[in-house]
Amino acid sequence: MACKNVCRLCDHLAISTDVTFDGTNLVVTLPQDSFRDGEKVCIVIAQSIPAETTITAPVVIQIGEGTEQYPLTTRCCAQVTACGVRTRTKYSTRVVTNATGGTFRLLGDPACSPNNNLQSINGTAPTTTTTASDGRKTTTAVAKKA
User: Fold this and answer.
1) What is the pLDDT of residue 145?
2) If you placed Cys at 37, which of 9, 97, 108, 126 could pair as Cys (CB 3.0 to 4.6 Å)?
3) If the chain, 146 residues long, is cut into consecutive pieces of 10 residues, what is the mean pLDDT of each piece?
């Protein structure tokens, strides 16, 4: 079968118009549109991710000039962070709405991202070991979140 020289893009393709870091979130802006509950949307992050973005920044979707931001989540409903997305990459998502908003849920797994989970918990504050400039190792307890 020969390749068509001219073909139409899918109606479910949404190419980002802007990618910004607002100090807290990595904001991916999609063109103005309405996305229905259960609709499949293939999001392409077309712009470069800003250099100042922290790897733990949650990824959120903004639609057009709207002020509402919708989280990008994994298929298990965990928030996708900046280290899990790449530029010029297509992400297949499903729109999931509720009474007050919605999310864009990935249909597959995000790109490889580091796992910073603790290996175990035992009721005490986790500790970190650091090496000083003179070669001495020190252990510091990390405060528990209230």
Assistant:
1) 47
2) 97
3) 72 94 96 93 95 94 95 93 91 94 91 66 69 58 48
Domain-embedded: residue 125: no
In a domain, 73, yes or no: yes
Structural domain boundaries enclosing 78: 13-106
What is the DSSP track for 96-114?
Answer: EE-SS-EEEEESSPPSP--
The pLDDT, as a whole number, for residue 108 is 84
Report yes or no on 143 lying in a domain.
Answer: no
Please name which of 31, 38, 100, 45 lies closest in space to residue 70, comparing C-alpha atoms.
100
User: Is residue 146 classed exposed, middle or buried when 0-12, 13-18 and 19+ CB atoms within 10 A define those classes?
Assistant: exposed
Kind of pairing between the strands at 102-106 and 59-63: unpaired
Place of tokens 């991916």: 28
Q: What pTM value is reported for the model?
A: 0.74
Contact between 108 and 95 (Cβ < 8 Å): no
What is the number of domains present in the chain? Answer: 1
